[in-house]
Amino acid sequence: MVHEANRFSTGILKFDKLLEGGFPESSSVLLNGTPGIGKSIFCQQFLYHGVKNNEKCIFLTFDVRPETILNSMARFGWETKDKIVFVDCFSYRIGAQSSSRYAITGLSDLNQLSMIFEDVLGDVGKGRKRIVVDSLSTLLLYSDPELTLKFLKDFIAAATSQKALILMTIEEGIHDEKTMAILNYMTEGLIEMKFDMDKRFLRIMKMRDTATSRTWSEFDITKKGIELV
Predict the structure, then answer these.
(1) Regarding beta strands 27-33 and 189-196, do their DSSP bridges make them parallel or antiparallel, or are they unpaired?
(2) Fold of 4-200+207-228
(3) Which pTM does this prediction carry?
(4) Can you tell me the distance from the alpha carbon of 42 to that of 28, in angstroms, rounded to the nearest whole number?
(5) Which residues, at least 6 apart from 89, have a Cβ–Cβ distance to it below 8 Å?
C-alpha cells in the first residue's frame, strides 16, 4: 500500500478514509457522473485543499471561465489567493478576453493545448501538483475523438511524471462504450457519481494501490462543500 504521505487528500474526510488517505501520487483519476451531480464542486474542493497544503494547483477549464470557478469556490469560503493556475479553454468560444495568461484560441488543434500545458508545467516548477480537467466531454466533443484520446495518453504521462495527481471529469451517458473503455484503461482510478431518489451517491470503482469495495456512499453538498453522510 502507498504511504499516506504519498497521497493527495481530497479534503472530504470520510472519503479520504475510503481512499486510505487520498488519491495515490503520480496517478490519474476519472470522475464520471450525470450533469449536476457535483463533479465540478468535487474538483474545486480538491484543489482548494491543495492550496491549503501549499501544493501546485492547475485547472484546465473547458466549460466555464476561470472567474466563474473562483466565484463558485468563494460561495463555500474557499479563497485561493491566486494560487490556482488556470488554462482557459473556454473564453475563446464566447469571444471573450481571457483573464489567464494561459489560454487557447480553439480546440481543433490540440498541439496548441499541448504546448501551453508544457509551458504551465515548466512555469509552476517542481513539487507535488494537483491538476484538474473539467470536463473531458467538451474536449472530446470539440476535437477529433481519436486524436483526443492519443493526446490524453501523452498528457497524463507528462503530468504523472511530475508527482502529480490528475483528476478529470466526464459526463455519463454521452460517449460510446469504446471511448469510455479506453479512458478507463488509461486512468488508474475511477469514481462514479449518481442520483438515486433525489439523493446523491458516489463509489470508488478502482484505485491504484487501494482496496476498494465498490459500495455506494451517500453524500450531500453543504455550505462546506461535499460531505459523506
Answers:
(1) parallel
(2) Rossmann fold (3.40.50)
(3) 0.96
(4) 15
(5) 60, 61, 62, 103, 104, 107, 113, 138, 139
Q: Which residues lie closer than 8 Å to 83 by C-beta, 6 or more apart?
A: 51, 57
Residue 117 grid coordinates: 500545458
What is the predicted pLDDT for the residue at 62? 98
Q: Please say if the pLDDT value at position 114 is more than 60.
A: yes
pLDDT in tens, 81-113: 899 999 999 999 999 999 999 999 999 889 999
- Going by the DSSP 8-state scheme, the letter that residue 93 receives in this structure is G
Cβ atoms 140, 175 nearer than 8 A? yes
Alpha-carbon span 108 to 142, nearest angstrom = 7
Is 179 in contact with 18 (CB distance < 8 Å)?
Answer: no
Query: At which residue does the C-alpha cell 496548441 appear?
Result: 112
Contact yes or no for 40/114 (Cβ under 8 A): no
Q: Please, are residues 220 and 37 in contact by the beta-carbon 8 Å criterion?
A: no
Grid cell locating 121:
508545467
